[in-house]
Amino acid sequence: MPYKEKTIEKKYYAIGEVAAMFNVATSLIRFWESEFDIIKPKKNRKGNRQFTKDDIENVKLIYHLVKEKGFTLQGAKDMLKNDTEAVRGRMEVIESLSQVKEFLLEIRQQLR
Prior knowledge:
Elements: H1 15-22, H2 26-35, E1 42-43, E2 49-50, H3 53-68, H4 73-111
Antiparallel strand pairs: 1-2
């Protein structure tokens, strides 16, 4: 049986890594943590935040509402309070459509 390389997935991410994923300052991530109940990173003995994949998905949700959709913080809170799963579903549909668009644009470029 041939050797198959395993990809190692991190269990926890530092706040700097999370901020870099969204191209925002770490202070914004800390601020959102204080404003939104759905962001709850664990803290290690030193007090450093340790974000899980679920935490990152929740940051992504808030980023989508506030930065991409232009919601106020209160508007984003209201949306999440009413139906977090519906917001998550719409965000996933938008991401999928964006990927399809990119793919189609690449095909168009190659056909020229």
